[in-house]
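Thread amino acids onto this structure.
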């Protein structure tokens, strides 16, 4: 079980550099950030761009993997984003992971002045976005003229540091998204079973994730792929679990999700006064003392 964090892009860099350095010093596997233009209750507060934040983080970290969790087609285009990805992979010395998802009907979907896409179109666009991004990051020149996105003699030279390209971590729960993950993903991302009702227990949440993992494994088998080649990432904070109450609570949570098939657990960096509030000292103890206890799960 790998232990990572997600650091929301809310910090002016004079503060943000210390947060990212701390994440690196703690020995976390990865530090991700949300790739939104704004997000839920943070809409009217500070919120910086994901790509420049990761570029700056690359310069103040040495071991920490970096990534988006997740990027969506709501406001990104594959050709321009591929250039950003290639550059971030270079700046980080090959430490980048790109999280991809279909997005929602939230702020990102309407901020450019259009109508939000329905679930079917979001799934179509994620499919087309991912397929073209894969080509752009593995071929030196790409012309593409079908689906929702176009490219005309697009160059991505010299290409990513990582070979054959930067890994994709695809957030998906539906049949189409899981098939997309089986085809293109090096990792799969979940926030838990979105069908859980009020009053659900941690055991209910873990059973829901286990069912999701089983569907992912079935999609891999259908695609002729070994399911063990896809990492399974849980972004915490959206299930009834409370992994940041104590080191023991974290170990119990991580053990339960390891049994459900999860291989990487992502904790939100504590933000006082928000839904991600937690004791910073406990968070650091969880990473320093709890992560080694679950490393062999």
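Threaded sequence (297 positions):
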């Amino acid at each position: 079980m790998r232990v990572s964090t997600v650091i929301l892009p809310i910090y002016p860099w004079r503060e943000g550099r210390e947060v990212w350095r701390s994440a690196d010093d703690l020995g976390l596997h990865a530090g991700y950030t949300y790739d939104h233009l704004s997000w839920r209750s943070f809409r009217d507060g500070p919120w910086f761009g994901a790509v420049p934040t990761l570029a700056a983080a690359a310069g103040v970290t040495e071991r920490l993997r970096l990534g988006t969790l997740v990027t969506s087609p709501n406001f990104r285009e594959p050709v321009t984003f591929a250039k950003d990805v290639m550059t971030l992979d270079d700046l980080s010395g090959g430490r980048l992971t790109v999280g991809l998802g279909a997005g929602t009907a939230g702020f990102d979907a309407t901020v450019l002045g259009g109508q939000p896409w329905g679930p079917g179109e979001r799934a179509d666009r994620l499919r087309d976005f991912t397929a073209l991004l894969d080509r752009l990051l593995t071929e030196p020149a790409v012309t593409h003229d079908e689906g929702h996105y176009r490219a005309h003699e697009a160059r991505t030279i010299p290409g990513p540091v990582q070979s054959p390209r930067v890994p994709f971590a695809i957030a998906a729960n539906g049949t189409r998204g899981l098939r997309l993950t089986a085809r293109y993903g090096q990792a799969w991302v979940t926030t838990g079973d979105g069908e859980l009702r009020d009053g659900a227990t941690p055991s209910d949440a873990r059973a829901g994730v286990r069912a999701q993992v089983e569907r992912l494994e079935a999609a891999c088998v259908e695609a002729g792929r070994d399911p063990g080649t896809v990492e399974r990432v849980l972004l915490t904070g959206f299930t009834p679990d409370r992994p940041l109450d104590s080191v023991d609570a974290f170990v119990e949570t991580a053990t339960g999700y390891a049994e459900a098939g999860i291989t990487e657990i992502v904790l939100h960096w504590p933000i006082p006064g928000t839904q991600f509030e937690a004791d910073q000292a406990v968070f650091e103890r969880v990473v320093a003392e709890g992560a080694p206890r679950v490393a062999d799960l």
